[in-house]
Design a protein that fits this description.
Length: 344
């Protein structure tokens, strides 16, 4: 009786532990402070706290975009700190010329796929153009969807205007971690008149420093600085106490981010070559590798080299083969019988 009771109790404890572990490993930011668990296993998971700690220790932060399960898995396996499900998906995945057309529902598909592939990085999802500008209710509804339905740990919002600072305040007030993004903000391409480097005058540079300070005050945990002169990025970085993540902003930031397809050199297609930014180093030429493989496949199918015996693994046992030929013959499929007899 006692043994049964202890067994029942221990399975109950195990179940509770299971739920607890699920929670502990699926969340990124609260577990250690709330439960006081030791720095150990979940040290593997990047949290807002570990991002801030790395920043304070002067460790350069790394971030890469991802849009689906395999890209997320590769980024995560490389132990990149932050995976951004960027609205750049509109361009590099959906083939649009700008980031404007992507919707929240489309972003959510990317977010969910990435959250299944990346298990240790901090996951940040972009709030897409047109999904938050109307009012606070729309903003909060969509930011919450990105966390709840998309499995993201934080959202990113573009811009440093008064309305954006207030949007950040609303979201952080609702318990949502927010990454800012200033400089070239592609969602404002219509206003900026194209994808152009920003802060090219002293006045514009000062404005960006002010915006960064305001975004920090509103509760951003980090700010992306896109396409700025490196001295402006350096001034912003040293004026705030949260990490800056640069893209086309030189090396005086707290970390760097690149778009997955740009970094890997996917863009061999002339349309894509056109939009690969000049600041982007291509660490591989994946596009060339893919193109070569596709052409080889086509050629080998055409000349009969593929699949060949090596890639034809499924056989009929000889007894069944004989019966099969007999049955084909009885049914009058004589061409098939000849064909069957022609090869071993
Ligand atoms: O959408 C995106 O990929 C981005 C990065 C360029 C920072 O915002």
């Amino acid at each position: 009786m006692y043994a049964l009771y202890t067994k029942h109790l221990s399975s109950k404890v195990q179940r509770v532990r299971g739920v607890y572990n699920l929670y502990r490993y699926s969340t990124t930011s609260v577990s250690d402070s709330l439960y006081g668990c030791k720095i150990g296993e979940h040290e593997k998971t990047t949290t807002l706290k570990s991002v801030q700690e790395k920043y304070e220790r002067g460790v350069a932060l790394t971030a890469v975009t991802a849009y689906d399960y395999p890209s997320a898995m590769h980024v995560d396996l490389a132990k990149i700190d932050i995976v951004l499900v960027g609205d750049s998906a509109a361009m590099v995945v959906h083939g649009h010329d700008t980031t404007l057309p992507i919707s929240v529902d489309e972003m959510l598909i990317h977010c969910r796929s990435v959250s299944r592939g990346a298990k240790s990085a901090l996951l940040v999802g972009d709030i897409p153009f047109g999904s938050y500008e109307n009012d606070d209710a729309q903003l909060l509804k969509n930011a919450i969807r990105i966390l709840k339905e998309g499995g993201m740990h934080a959202v990113k919002i573009e811009g440093g205007s008064r309305s954006r600072v207030s949007a950040v305040q609303k979201m952080t007030g609702a318990g949502i971690a927010v990454m800012g993004h200033i400089g070239l903000t592609p969602q404002s391409v219509s206003l900026l008149g194209g994808f152009r480097p920003q802060a090219r005058s002293a006045k514009a540079a000062v404005k960006l420093v002010e915006q960064a300070i305001e975004l920090e005050g509103a509760g951003c945990f980090s700010i992306v600085l896109e396409c700025l002169p490196d001295c402006v990025a350096a001034a912003i970085t040293s004026s705030i106490n949260i990490p800056t993540i640069g893209i086309g902003a030189g090396s005086n930031t707290s970390g760097q981010i690149l778009v997955y397809h740009d970094l890997l050199g996917f863009m061999q297609h002339p349309h894509h070559a056109k939009v690969t930014p000049k600041f982007c180093k291509q660490y591989a030429q994946v596009g060339k590798v893919i193109q070569k493989a596709m052409t080889e496949f086509k050629n080998e199918v055409r000349n009969g080299e593929f699949p060949g015996t090596e890639f034809t693994p499924y056989k009929l046992r000889s007894r069944d083969r004989k019966i099969f030929i007999e049955m084909l013959g009885k049914a009058g499929f004589l061409d098939a019988v000849h064909r069957m007899k022609a090869y071993k």
